[in-house]
């Protein structure tokens, strides 16, 4: 009797997650890497995903075989090789998540990754423009401030750029900010929402702590702002030459991918996330991409919010962020 009840409950849960889901293909490019593997694991659990296509230049058959034994509804395929392998991974993809590229070592800035990662991202963009021009593209590869404009320029050149469907993933900054503020204020992070705007490196990361509903001393503001801006360095230093954030990034990437899936195929309304997109917010200042809260809908990034009310302290952070962002974006666009 007990076994039957449990079996019935299990079947009901499965039936719910299957019927509630509006299913689609998700491709992960760089799927065998430090981020790619745990990210793919988390996506394997996502009920919106019907097909998880894992692409990397190495090791995807093993990662795909391993993940394919997990008893969730999606099919898993592994792909390698920059021609047919990449084409098969991308064809019919609804969402493409890209953590391909080299990570930092201590002493490096994200911009130091430009030389290697720019061409990796450019190559992947050329393939996406050809094989899945309508997919929602989520860029994790650093430096995000430059790799997003690189991707956009390739799509423009191919005549398939849709600014609503290209997102720089800045969710890790939001995740960190929530965790760090919760620690200081002794709260559960699930109750702490921090909007982080700007870009994804050092001073271009601007947390809007005045909008959290908490009061902060000047010391707390300085310490938290610095920790959120340079959280990535903490991990790079602790990993001591073996890489940068992978597990927390996988968590953040899976969260953002889920938001895109919920808004585009799940029929969910009011999905709002900060993300680095083509934006008018500082276009007059010559900054064509910027992260603010963005409303996601069936077509992607449908409504870009402004900064809202910000403090004098935050205005200074924005003033410091804009010239650096402008430089990073121009470098990417000119590549
Ligand atoms: N946006 C963000 O918040 C964050 C971004 N990152 C960035 O993510 C990237 C990946 O980091 P990890 O996974 O730690 O590095 P990793 O070195 O562990 O993995 C990268 C993977 O990319 C693959 N790869 C290289 N060239 C490729 C190509 N042309 N096509 C497909 N795959 C290719 C490699 O074979 C490797 O498996 C780095 O650029 C890192 O800086 C890391 C953390 C946070
Ligand atoms: O710090 C890095 O190089 C990786 C990254 O973007 C982050 O952890 O925010």
TrEMBL record:
Which Gene Ontology molecular function entries are recorded, alphabetically?
L-malate dehydrogenase (NAD+) activity
Keyword line: NAD, Oxidoreductase, Tricarboxylic acid cycle
Q: Which PROSITE patterns does its entry note?
A: MDH (PS00068)
A single GO cellular-component term from the record reads: cytoplasm
SUPFAM superfamilies in alphabetical order: LDH C-terminal domain-like, NAD(P)-binding Rossmann-fold domains
Per the database record, which ranges form the Lactate/malate dehydrogenase N-terminal domain?
25-168
Query: What InterPro entries does UniProt report for this protein, alphabetically?
Result: L-lactate/malate_DH, Lactate/malate_DH_C, Lactate/malate_DH_N, Lactate_DH/Glyco_Ohase_4_C, Malate_DH_AS, Malate_DH_type1, NAD(P)-bd_dom_sf
Reading the lineage from the top rank, the first entry is Eukaryota
| Leading EC class | oxidoreductase
What does the record give as the active site? 200 (proton acceptor)
EC code: 1.1.1.37
List the catalysed reactions: (S)-malate + NAD(+) = oxaloacetate + NADH + H(+)
Output the Pfam families linked to this UniProt entry.
Ldh_1_C, Ldh_1_N
Q: Name one GO biological process term.
A: tricarboxylic acid cycle
Where do the Lactate/malate dehydrogenase C-terminal domain residues begin and end? 170-335
Q: Where does substrate bind?
A: 104, 110, 142, 176
Q: So where does NAD(+) get bound?
A: 30-36, 56, 117, 140-142, 249
User: In which family does this protein belong, per the annotation?
Assistant: Belongs to the LDH/MDH superfamily. MDH type 1 family.
Q: Which NCBIfam families match?
A: MDH_euk_gproteo
Q: How does it assemble?
A: Homodimer.
- Tell me the protein's name: Malate dehydrogenase
């Amino acid at each position: 009797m007990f076994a039957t009840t449990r079996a019935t409950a299990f079947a009901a849960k499965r039936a719910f997650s299957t019927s509630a889901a509006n299913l689609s293909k998700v491709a992960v490019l760089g799927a065998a890497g430090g981020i790619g593997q745990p990210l793919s694991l988390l996506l394997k659990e996502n009920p919106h995903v019907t097909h998880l296509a894992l692409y990397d230049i190495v090791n995807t058959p093993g990662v795909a075989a391993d993940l394919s034994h997990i008893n969730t509804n999606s099919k898993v395929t592994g792909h390698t090789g920059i021609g047919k392998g990449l084409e098969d991974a991308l064809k019919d993809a609804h969402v493409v998540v890209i953590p391909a590229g080299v990570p930092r070592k201590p002493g490096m800035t994200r911009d130091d990754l430009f030389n290697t990662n720019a061409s990796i991202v450019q190559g992947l963009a050329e393939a996406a423009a050809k094989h899945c021009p309508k997919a929602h593209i989520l860029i994790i590869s650093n430096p995000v401030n430059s790799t997003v404009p690189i991707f956009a320029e390739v799509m423009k050149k191919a005549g398939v750029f849709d600014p609503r469907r290209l997102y720089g993933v800045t969710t890790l900054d939001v995740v960190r900010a929530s965790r760090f503020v919760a620690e200081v204020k002794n709260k559960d992070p699930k109750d702490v929402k921090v909007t982080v705007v700007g870009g994804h490196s050092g001073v271009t990361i601007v947390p809007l702590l005045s909008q959290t509903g908490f009061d902060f001393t000047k010391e707390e503001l300085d310490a938290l702002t610095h920790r959120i801006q340079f959280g990535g360095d903490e991990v790079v230093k602790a990993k001591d030459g073996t890489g940068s954030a992978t597990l927390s990034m996988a968590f953040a990437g899976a969260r953002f991918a889920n938001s895109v899936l919920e808004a585009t195929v799940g029929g969910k309304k009011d999905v709002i996330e900060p993300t680095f997109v083509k934006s008018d917010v500082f276009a007059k200042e010559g900054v064509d991409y910027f992260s603010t809260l963005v409303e996601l809908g069936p077509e992607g990034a449908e409504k870009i919010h402004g900064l809202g009310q910000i403090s004098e302290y935050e205005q200074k952070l924005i003033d410091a962020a804009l010239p650096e962002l402008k430089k990073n974006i121009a470098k990417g666009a000119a590549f």
